[in-house]
Amino acid sequence: MAPHFTSSANDISSSSSSAQSRLANISAHMSPSTQSSVFTQDVVPQAPEDPLFGLMAAFRRDTSPNKVDLGVGAYRDDNAKPWVLPVVKMAEEKLRKDPQLNHEYLPIAGLADFTSAAAKLILGGDSPAIKENRVASFQTISGTGAVHLGALFLAKFYPRTANQPVYFSAPTWVNHHQIFGNVGLPVQTYPYFSSSTKGLDFTGMIKGIEAAPEGSIILLHACAHNPTGVDPTAEQWKEIAAVIRSKNHFPFFDCAYQGFASGDLKRDAWAVQYFIEQGFELVVAQSFAKNFGLYGERTGCFHYVAAPSGAEASSTATRVASQLAILQRSEISNPPAYGARIASAVLNDPALFAEWEGNLRTMSGRIITMRKALRQNLENMGTPGTWNHITDQIGMFSFTGLTESQVMKLREDHIYLTKNGRISMAGLNTKNIEYFSKCVDKAVRES
């Protein structure tokens, strides 16, 4: 029999009165005027504005009809407008007509048709690593998410000692420092860019990697180095691989521009595929923002490649995948579907793939044309200095060699670029190249 509880009206009234008294007492000590945040200024100081986003904001506020945006890290057509790749429109139409399309969650590792095709694209369709089942691939939140997932995995599992930092090129993409720092990995740099030649400091790079403690993680840009636009040659990549092997370092490739750099997908993946052929264990962060124009869809992939060691390699890849799944689950659970479906439709359809290759040649070709025009203009005007590095460099960005004071002079002419002299070549077009060239000539001569 269930217990029976009774209470008198007086009991209820007394209890209610007591509760009201306690609430009144609490409220007296909780007036808005007496409350302050636990996140005081000494605990959470004001963070500095991101320099690039600050530059973009300044450009948007500028009302000059002559303003030029050379900071943006996105492709622009000859009218300075975003370009939706024709192949992306084709893929979107194909998806729209698919009666099976839904908006359910993707698996934690992402869209399998996409990740497998992405692996073939960067590692090679006939890659021994893929054939031997020693690759673990995870769809990520674009290239940034791929770098982060790799950094998080290495922070948790890479067997490193206190004197083994992660080594970046000097300079590197600024977000590398933040991503690796946020997961608690110390970072150092190795020489990369020569301010005198405005090209690769190859000797310094080799010496820097050799001097790193054995077993260090070495981050490498697969192609179209950001921010310099300076890449090693194939022969130099071979020497880099040899010194990394001799020191038992661990390669971490960041590839944000495959096909976008040279217009040739295979050429831009050469370094990654060479390292795999040499039997390295490595990881790759892969972005589809630039080469598909899918900036806002945040489409990327992270690949772990085990060293060739028979059946053990496949087992290692499986174990790594199991841990990557846990990390992914705790971060985003499931990656976004739309961009991956677009990329997958293109990567797995020969006709669409051929169209995509044509689109890539259009983008890379326009940037190459702007490089040639800028160099020719500066040389024709006799602008002090040498300008061959403009065409020697490759990809979206160019380290012009302009000083900070020269950059600020250009700002007076409504031209926006980062203080280190890096420009996005995609921001130049046939309508502003003459104006920009003349402004550079004036800034260099005045300084």
Automatic annotation (TrEMBL):
It is an enzyme of class 2 (transferase). It comes from Xylona heveae (strain CBS 132557 / TC161). GO terms for molecular function: L-aspartate:2-oxoglutarate aminotransferase activity; pyridoxal phosphate binding. Its cofactor is pyridoxal 5'-phosphate. SUPFAM superfamilies: PLP-dependent transferases. This is aspartate transaminase. The keyword Transferase applies. Residues 66-436 form the Aminotransferase class I/classII large domain. Pfam families: Aminotran_1_2. GO terms for biological process: aspartate biosynthetic process. Keywords: Aminotransferase, Pyridoxal phosphate, Transferase. GO terms for cellular component: cytosol. Its EC number is 2.6.1.1. Homodimer. Belongs to the class-I pyridoxal-phosphate-dependent aminotransferase family.
